[in-house]
Amino acid sequence: MRAVTSLLLSALALGSSFGLTWNSSNVPAGLAPLLSSQEGALPYNVYEEDKIKPAELRTRREKLLEKMPAGSVAVLFTNPERQRSNDTDFRFRPNSDFWYLTGCEEPNTALLLAKDGIVIDGQNVYEVLFVPERNPRSEVWTGIKMGPARAKVELGVDAVLPTSRFSEVLKAVAPTQIGNGDPVVGASGVLEQMRSAYAAFSEGKTVWRGLIREIGALRTTKSEHELRLLKRAVDSTVAAHSEAIKSCEPGMREFEIQALVEYIFARNGCEAVAYGSIVGSGMNSCILHYVDNRKRIQNGDILCMDVGGEYHGYAADVTRSYPANGKFTPAQRAIYQLVLEAQDAGIKACQNGAPFRAYDAACREVVSKGLVKLGIIQEPAEARRYFMHGSGHYLGLDVHDPQVITTLAPNQVLTVEPGIYIAPGSPCDPKWWSIGIRIEDDILITEKGPVNLSAGVPRDIASIEKLMAQKGLGNNPAGKLKDALARFSRGDDLHNCLAENHGH
Ligand SMILES: [Mn+2]
Fold first, then answer.
1. What is the pLDDT of residues 333-366, one digit of tens each?
2. Catalytic annotation on 460?
């Protein structure tokens, strides 16, 4: 199949210079039946009704333009498409700053903002979005694209031009300063052509260093619409956590829990995971970014599960840690209770007007004192060995959103996630070894105090044990999912399959 695909792609690439409407006489004979129903472009479809509206996108750009120095221009590119293997790519994810300003989700796109305006085709505009022209031949393979005309309607940018005019537009501006978005690394094709044109244009020009910071500042305060999308990601993640906690049993492999979680994300409309799902049992609970998820979960293991769905670009980021067999051991219970108290203190410190670092200090103080009290460390300063990460971060289009604002204010969302990780071999009583506990929730700052958006998954020990006593989608004997997956998830080998097939 791949060989055929490559062949067809080459054929299509050869034909791509013929313009907007393809001519069936250019198409190889074998392709004609495949394409015959599509004269010209396929219809552009909109499947979502809850994406950020053009008016809000425009407001974001206007706010940024206000912050730009006189005579400056800013240029932002989206992310390159990333190769996964041979001729397949990872699912495309736009650059977050670019996405925030444009709502544009298509690859090979760029935005130019001009503080004092720029004349395009006789019209003075302050913003120009560059998108590729539609190419019906390649759309059969890669999906239907907006093209400049549709992008103008969908995204509401003043001027939308084909990417082929990028260099020409650059020649028409003579900025006093330039603002650069995130550097583009590893691009190819159209995006690389624009990047290199911009690199040449940039040479010797004064750089305005504030662009990324100003966009980060704007992104920190969420609009009502953004909060709705983010809540949807969080709700999906809450559902996934609850189902995983109910379903977990010793004997399963970590990836079974991962599969269940990601199934629930997808069922709830999340387009992606916000980051690689972390499902670490036993000693893997002590590895902060463990994403292998291959180990078999043992009786007595703690399972540290840090997962989050992404909905229309907005991330959730929630962690729960629970005993695989449903009952905390005394040692696990002691560490869990300490982390829970640290998190309570951290959440309480998330007050309007507080410095960002206040809640980290609150978490750290509880953990340090508690570890001394348990005899795991002698001095509070040694706590870093077991609590080696910060207590949280802003959350939004990036799971780790820009952190340029240092004071908490309403409509910010951040995580509070203290943890204690005692790897095997740590200099303490071995009864603590292989206990990795993190508890993480997504907190909305309001004038009246912190609101825990992910409170739907229980945090206290009694409620977690109660939830674990239930069956879930992953282990309900009456559940169809288990029947469907049981045979392969438990590792039947080829020998057994063959023997069975020959026997009947
Ligand atoms: Mn986090």
1. 999 999 999 999 999 999 999 999 999 999 999 9
2. no
Catalytic residue check, 401: no
Q: What is the pLDDT of residues 468-477, one digit of tens each?
A: 999 998 888 6
| Mean pLDDT score, 410-431 | 98
Active site residue 379: no
Q: In angstroms, what is the span from residue 83 Cα to ligand 1's centroid?
A: 27
Same domain as 368, residue 255: yes
Asked whether residue 36 falls in the same domain as residue 53, the answer is: no
pLDDT value, residue 33: 39
Q: How many residues does the chain have?
A: 504
| Domains contained in the chain, number | 3
- The answer, as to whether pTM is greater than 0.70, is yes
Instruction: Mark whether 10 and 103 lie in a shared domain.
Output: no
Residue 394 is encoded by which pair of tokens? 């802003």
Catalytic residue among 219, 241, 253, 438: 438
Instruction: Tell me if residue 393 is catalytic.
Output: yes
Reply yes or no on whether 310 is catalytic: no
Same domain for 52 and 33: no
Pick the catalytic residue from 256, 301, 317, 442. 317
> Which residue from 62, 451, 23, 485 is spatially nearest to 230, judged by alpha carbons?
451
Residues 203 and 153 in one domain: yes
Residue 329 domain flag: yes
Distance CA 413, CA 223 (A): 11
CA distance 244 to 236: 12
Q: Is residue 465 part of a domain?
A: yes
Question: Which CATH number characterizes residue 140's domain?
Answer: 3.40.350.10
Nearest to 410 by CA among 354, 359, 454: 354
Distance 279 CA to ligand 1 centre (A): 14
**CA–centroid distance, residue 437 to ligand 1 (Å):** 13
* Ligand 1 mean position, distance from CA 380 (Å): 24
Question: What's the gap in Å between 438 CA and the centre of ligand 1?
Answer: 10
**Mean residue pLDDT across the chain:** 90
Task: Work out the pLDDT band at 55, boundaries 50, 70, 90.
Answer: very high
* Structural domain boundaries enclosing 1: 1-40
Measured in Å, residue 306 CA sits from the centre of ligand 1 at 8
Sheet hosting strand 314-315, strand order edge to edge:
272-273, 309-311, 314-315
Q: Give catalytic status of residue 312 as yes or no.
A: no
Looking at the fold, whether 234 and 160 belong to one and the same domain comes out as no
Residue that finishes a domain, picked among 172, 191, 217: 217
Q: Give percent above pLDDT 90 in the chain.
A: 84
CB 324 within 8 A of CB 254: no
Q: In the numeric block, which tokens belong to residue 441?
A: 């929730």
Whether residues 113 and 198 fall in one domain: yes
In terms of domains, do 157 and 225 share one? no
**218-267 pLDDT per residue, tens:** 999 999 999 999 999 999 999 999 999 999 999 999 999 999 999 999 99
